[in-house]
Design a protein that fits this description.
21 strands, 5 helices, 306 residues, alpha+beta
Protein backbone atom coordinates (compact mmCIF):
# COMPACT_ATOMS: atom_id res chain seq x y z
CA UNK A 1 0.00 0.00 0.00
CA UNK A 2 2.80 2.41 0.89
CA UNK A 3 4.48 1.80 -2.46
CA UNK A 4 1.23 2.46 -4.34
CA UNK A 5 0.64 5.68 -2.40
CA UNK A 6 4.19 6.80 -3.13
CA UNK A 7 3.80 6.22 -6.84
CA UNK A 8 0.52 8.16 -6.85
CA UNK A 9 2.14 11.01 -4.97
CA UNK A 10 5.07 11.08 -7.38
CA UNK A 11 2.72 11.05 -10.37
CA UNK A 12 0.67 13.95 -8.99
CA UNK A 13 3.73 16.08 -8.28
CA UNK A 14 5.21 15.29 -11.71
CA UNK A 15 2.01 16.32 -13.50
CA UNK A 16 1.99 19.56 -11.55
CA UNK A 17 5.59 20.21 -12.50
CA UNK A 18 5.05 19.54 -16.18
CA UNK A 19 1.94 21.71 -16.37
CA UNK A 20 3.19 24.68 -14.35
CA UNK A 21 5.29 26.10 -17.18
CA UNK A 22 2.33 26.14 -19.55
CA UNK A 23 -0.24 27.63 -17.20
CA UNK A 24 -2.04 30.62 -18.71
CA UNK A 25 -0.47 30.46 -22.19
CA UNK A 26 -1.76 28.68 -25.29
CA UNK A 27 0.09 28.07 -28.53
CA UNK A 28 -2.12 29.48 -31.30
CA UNK A 29 0.07 28.96 -34.36
CA UNK A 30 3.46 27.44 -35.16
CA UNK A 31 4.93 27.91 -38.61
CA UNK A 32 8.15 25.90 -38.37
CA UNK A 33 9.14 26.99 -41.91
CA UNK A 34 10.35 23.42 -42.53
CA UNK A 35 8.28 23.24 -45.73
CA UNK A 36 10.14 21.88 -48.77
CA UNK A 37 7.61 20.85 -51.38
CA UNK A 38 6.47 21.54 -54.92
CA UNK A 39 3.66 23.77 -53.69
CA UNK A 40 3.29 27.06 -51.81
CA UNK A 41 1.77 25.78 -48.54
CA UNK A 42 3.38 26.98 -45.29
CA UNK A 43 2.18 24.47 -42.72
CA UNK A 44 1.01 25.29 -39.21
CA UNK A 45 2.16 22.51 -36.88
CA UNK A 46 0.28 23.74 -33.80
CA UNK A 47 -2.61 21.39 -34.54
CA UNK A 48 -4.94 24.23 -35.55
CA UNK A 49 -4.22 24.00 -39.31
CA UNK A 50 -3.71 27.72 -39.76
CA UNK A 51 -1.68 27.05 -42.90
CA UNK A 52 -0.35 29.93 -44.98
CA UNK A 53 0.49 30.47 -48.65
CA UNK A 54 3.86 31.57 -50.02
CA UNK A 55 3.98 34.29 -52.67
CA UNK A 56 6.41 36.58 -54.44
CA UNK A 57 5.76 40.25 -55.31
CA UNK A 58 2.94 42.46 -54.08
CA UNK A 59 -0.77 41.64 -53.93
CA UNK A 60 -1.48 43.04 -57.39
CA UNK A 61 1.27 40.99 -59.05
CA UNK A 62 1.75 38.06 -56.69
CA UNK A 63 2.76 34.65 -57.99
CA UNK A 64 2.87 31.35 -56.15
CA UNK A 65 6.31 30.45 -54.76
CA UNK A 66 7.01 26.78 -54.14
CA UNK A 67 8.59 26.22 -50.74
CA UNK A 68 11.21 23.87 -52.22
CA UNK A 69 12.64 26.82 -54.15
CA UNK A 70 13.40 28.82 -51.00
CA UNK A 71 14.10 26.10 -48.41
CA UNK A 72 17.45 26.61 -46.65
CA UNK A 73 19.15 25.29 -43.48
CA UNK A 74 17.57 26.91 -40.42
CA UNK A 75 17.97 27.05 -36.67
CA UNK A 76 15.66 24.07 -36.19
CA UNK A 77 15.50 21.89 -39.29
CA UNK A 78 15.07 24.07 -42.35
CA UNK A 79 13.87 27.64 -42.86
CA UNK A 80 12.33 29.68 -45.66
CA UNK A 81 14.44 32.29 -47.42
CA UNK A 82 12.05 35.23 -47.71
CA UNK A 83 14.43 37.43 -49.69
CA UNK A 84 13.54 38.82 -53.13
CA UNK A 85 10.06 39.96 -52.08
CA UNK A 86 8.89 36.52 -50.94
CA UNK A 87 6.32 36.45 -48.13
CA UNK A 88 3.77 34.19 -46.47
CA UNK A 89 0.06 35.05 -46.29
CA UNK A 90 -1.93 33.86 -43.26
CA UNK A 91 -4.95 36.07 -43.97
CA UNK A 92 -7.37 33.17 -44.42
CA UNK A 93 -7.16 32.68 -40.64
CA UNK A 94 -7.32 36.34 -39.57
CA UNK A 95 -10.24 35.68 -37.19
CA UNK A 96 -8.09 33.31 -35.14
CA UNK A 97 -4.73 35.08 -35.45
CA UNK A 98 -5.64 38.61 -34.36
CA UNK A 99 -5.16 38.70 -30.57
CA UNK A 100 -7.32 41.06 -28.53
CA UNK A 101 -5.66 40.29 -25.19
CA UNK A 102 -2.24 39.20 -23.94
CA UNK A 103 -0.07 37.59 -26.61
CA UNK A 104 3.47 36.60 -27.61
CA UNK A 105 5.16 36.51 -31.01
CA UNK A 106 8.48 34.73 -31.55
CA UNK A 107 10.64 34.03 -34.61
CA UNK A 108 14.19 33.78 -35.95
CA UNK A 109 15.70 36.03 -38.65
CA UNK A 110 19.04 35.71 -40.44
CA UNK A 111 21.13 38.84 -40.95
CA UNK A 112 22.15 38.07 -44.54
CA UNK A 113 25.02 40.26 -45.79
CA UNK A 114 24.71 42.25 -42.55
CA UNK A 115 21.78 44.25 -43.93
CA UNK A 116 20.27 44.72 -40.47
CA UNK A 117 23.35 46.65 -39.34
CA UNK A 118 24.29 48.52 -42.53
CA UNK A 119 21.14 49.11 -44.58
CA UNK A 120 19.10 52.09 -43.42
CA UNK A 121 15.73 50.44 -43.89
CA UNK A 122 13.14 48.59 -41.89
CA UNK A 123 12.55 44.89 -42.48
CA UNK A 124 8.99 43.92 -41.45
CA UNK A 125 9.01 40.27 -40.37
CA UNK A 126 5.42 39.94 -39.12
CA UNK A 127 2.38 42.17 -39.52
CA UNK A 128 -1.33 42.57 -38.96
CA UNK A 129 -2.50 45.06 -41.57
CA UNK A 130 -5.09 46.27 -44.08
CA UNK A 131 -5.14 47.54 -47.64
CA UNK A 132 -6.65 50.81 -46.37
CA UNK A 133 -3.71 53.22 -45.84
CA UNK A 134 -5.60 55.37 -43.33
CA UNK A 135 -6.06 52.76 -40.64
CA UNK A 136 -3.49 51.50 -38.12
CA UNK A 137 -1.36 48.48 -38.92
CA UNK A 138 0.88 46.55 -36.54
CA UNK A 139 4.33 45.35 -37.51
CA UNK A 140 7.46 43.86 -36.01
CA UNK A 141 10.47 45.43 -37.73
CA UNK A 142 14.15 44.56 -37.70
CA UNK A 143 16.79 46.81 -39.17
CA UNK A 144 18.82 49.98 -39.05
CA UNK A 145 16.15 52.69 -38.86
CA UNK A 146 16.11 56.40 -37.99
CA UNK A 147 12.90 57.70 -36.52
CA UNK A 148 11.76 61.30 -36.90
CA UNK A 149 13.72 62.39 -33.82
CA UNK A 150 16.99 61.05 -35.24
CA UNK A 151 17.34 58.11 -32.88
CA UNK A 152 18.48 54.74 -34.15
CA UNK A 153 16.13 51.82 -33.59
CA UNK A 154 17.47 48.43 -34.65
CA UNK A 155 14.47 46.37 -33.55
CA UNK A 156 11.03 47.68 -32.76
CA UNK A 157 7.34 47.00 -32.82
CA UNK A 158 5.07 49.67 -34.18
CA UNK A 159 1.59 50.65 -35.22
CA UNK A 160 1.27 53.11 -38.07
CA UNK A 161 -1.43 54.82 -40.10
CA UNK A 162 -1.95 57.74 -42.43
CA UNK A 163 -2.27 59.97 -39.35
CA UNK A 164 1.04 59.11 -37.73
CA UNK A 165 3.58 56.54 -36.68
CA UNK A 166 3.59 54.86 -33.31
CA UNK A 167 6.44 52.77 -32.04
CA UNK A 168 9.12 51.90 -29.57
CA UNK A 169 12.68 53.17 -29.70
CA UNK A 170 14.80 50.65 -27.79
CA UNK A 171 18.47 50.78 -27.06
CA UNK A 172 20.76 50.12 -30.01
CA UNK A 173 21.19 46.37 -30.39
CA UNK A 174 23.79 44.32 -32.22
CA UNK A 175 23.18 42.19 -35.29
CA UNK A 176 25.99 39.78 -36.18
CA UNK A 177 26.54 39.38 -39.91
CA UNK A 178 25.12 36.22 -41.52
CA UNK A 179 23.94 34.89 -38.15
CA UNK A 180 20.49 33.87 -36.97
CA UNK A 181 18.93 36.09 -34.30
CA UNK A 182 15.85 35.40 -32.19
CA UNK A 183 13.27 38.16 -31.77
CA UNK A 184 10.15 38.13 -29.61
CA UNK A 185 7.57 40.49 -28.22
CA UNK A 186 4.95 40.13 -25.53
CA UNK A 187 1.94 42.26 -24.65
CA UNK A 188 0.45 41.75 -21.22
CA UNK A 189 -2.23 43.62 -19.28
CA UNK A 190 -0.95 44.52 -15.83
CA UNK A 191 -3.41 46.22 -13.46
CA UNK A 192 -5.46 47.53 -16.38
CA UNK A 193 -2.46 48.73 -18.40
CA UNK A 194 -0.94 47.01 -21.43
CA UNK A 195 2.81 46.42 -21.15
CA UNK A 196 4.83 45.70 -24.31
CA UNK A 197 8.21 43.97 -23.99
CA UNK A 198 10.66 43.31 -26.82
CA UNK A 199 13.42 40.69 -26.70
CA UNK A 200 16.42 40.06 -28.92
CA UNK A 201 18.31 36.79 -28.43
CA UNK A 202 16.64 36.42 -25.05
CA UNK A 203 17.60 39.87 -23.75
CA UNK A 204 14.89 42.46 -23.13
CA UNK A 205 15.77 45.51 -25.25
CA UNK A 206 12.62 47.58 -24.77
CA UNK A 207 9.62 47.90 -22.47
CA UNK A 208 6.66 50.21 -23.00
CA UNK A 209 4.34 50.52 -20.02
CA UNK A 210 0.94 51.81 -20.90
CA UNK A 211 1.63 54.25 -23.71
CA UNK A 212 3.12 54.26 -27.20
CA UNK A 213 5.07 57.34 -28.26
CA UNK A 214 3.53 59.08 -31.27
CA UNK A 215 6.61 60.01 -33.29
CA UNK A 216 6.65 63.42 -34.91
CA UNK A 217 4.08 65.03 -32.61
CA UNK A 218 6.03 66.11 -29.55
CA UNK A 219 5.00 64.17 -26.46
CA UNK A 220 1.73 62.75 -27.82
CA UNK A 221 1.00 59.15 -26.82
CA UNK A 222 -1.73 56.52 -27.08
CA UNK A 223 -2.28 53.36 -25.00
CA UNK A 224 -0.37 50.26 -26.11
CA UNK A 225 -2.93 48.57 -28.39
CA UNK A 226 -3.45 44.99 -29.56
CA UNK A 227 -4.37 44.01 -33.14
CA UNK A 228 -7.72 42.59 -32.06
CA UNK A 229 -8.91 46.01 -30.92
CA UNK A 230 -8.97 47.22 -34.55
CA UNK A 231 -11.68 45.34 -36.49
CA UNK A 232 -10.53 46.90 -39.77
CA UNK A 233 -7.32 44.84 -39.71
CA UNK A 234 -8.01 42.02 -42.16
CA UNK A 235 -4.59 40.65 -43.19
CA UNK A 236 -1.77 38.71 -41.51
CA UNK A 237 1.64 38.33 -43.12
CA UNK A 238 5.05 36.83 -42.41
CA UNK A 239 7.85 38.78 -44.07
CA UNK A 240 5.81 41.69 -45.44
CA UNK A 241 3.32 44.44 -44.67
CA UNK A 242 0.61 45.85 -46.94
CA UNK A 243 0.84 49.64 -46.79
CA UNK A 244 -2.17 50.25 -49.01
CA UNK A 245 -2.06 52.91 -51.71
CA UNK A 246 0.47 55.00 -49.77
CA UNK A 247 3.34 52.67 -50.53
CA UNK A 248 2.09 49.28 -51.70
CA UNK A 249 3.94 46.43 -49.97
CA UNK A 250 7.06 46.57 -47.80
CA UNK A 251 9.09 43.37 -47.53
CA UNK A 252 11.27 41.85 -44.84
CA UNK A 253 13.66 40.33 -47.41
CA UNK A 254 15.20 38.06 -44.76
CA UNK A 255 15.30 34.30 -44.10
CA UNK A 256 12.82 33.44 -41.32
CA UNK A 257 12.51 30.33 -39.15
CA UNK A 258 10.29 28.84 -36.43
CA UNK A 259 7.49 31.41 -36.06
CA UNK A 260 5.25 31.05 -33.01
CA UNK A 261 2.16 32.94 -31.81
CA UNK A 262 0.67 32.45 -28.34
CA UNK A 263 -2.31 33.69 -26.40
CA UNK A 264 -0.76 34.96 -23.19
CA UNK A 265 2.57 36.61 -22.44
CA UNK A 266 5.48 34.18 -22.12
CA UNK A 267 7.98 34.74 -19.33
CA UNK A 268 11.67 35.31 -19.98
CA UNK A 269 12.28 31.71 -18.91
CA UNK A 270 9.76 30.42 -21.43
CA UNK A 271 11.29 32.58 -24.18
CA UNK A 272 14.65 31.04 -23.27
CA UNK A 273 13.04 27.61 -23.70
CA UNK A 274 11.86 28.64 -27.17
CA UNK A 275 15.39 29.76 -28.07
CA UNK A 276 16.96 26.54 -26.80
CA UNK A 277 14.33 24.00 -27.83
CA UNK A 278 12.21 25.66 -30.53
CA UNK A 279 8.54 26.62 -30.42
CA UNK A 280 7.56 23.02 -29.75
CA UNK A 281 9.72 23.05 -26.62
CA UNK A 282 8.40 26.28 -25.13
CA UNK A 283 6.75 24.50 -22.20
CA UNK A 284 9.86 22.60 -21.06
CA UNK A 285 9.62 22.53 -17.23
CA UNK A 286 11.49 25.29 -15.46
CA UNK A 287 14.16 24.41 -12.85
CA UNK A 288 11.72 24.90 -9.98
CA UNK A 289 9.43 22.29 -11.48
CA UNK A 290 12.31 19.87 -11.92
CA UNK A 291 13.17 20.31 -8.25
CA UNK A 292 9.66 19.15 -7.36
CA UNK A 293 10.10 16.10 -9.54
CA UNK A 294 13.46 15.21 -7.98
CA UNK A 295 11.95 15.66 -4.54
CA UNK A 296 9.19 13.22 -5.40
CA UNK A 297 11.75 10.63 -6.50
CA UNK A 298 13.66 11.09 -3.26
CA UNK A 299 10.47 10.60 -1.25
CA UNK A 300 9.72 7.37 -3.13
CA UNK A 301 13.19 6.03 -2.41
CA UNK A 302 12.85 6.92 1.28
CA UNK A 303 9.48 5.18 1.61
CA UNK A 304 10.67 2.06 -0.16
CA UNK A 305 13.56 1.75 2.31
CA UNK A 306 11.02 1.79 5.17
Amino acid sequence: MRLTQSWLFMLAVTMLALSSAAQGETLVGHWAMDDNAADNTVLDSSGHSYDGSLYQNDHANQVNMNTEDVSIPGVFGTALDLQNQVWADLTAHIANLKPAGDYTLSLWVKNVDNVLATQQAGHPVFSWDTSNPYYPRFQVVCGYVWDTFGRISSFHASASSGAGYLGTSPQLTTWEADQWHHVALTVEEVEGTNVLKIYQDGDKVAEVMGMFKLFGTGDATIPVPTPGTYPVLDQVHIGAIDLGSLGSTSYGNLPIDDVGLWEGALTEEQIANVINHGVQGWAVPEPSSLVLFIGALALLRFRRRR
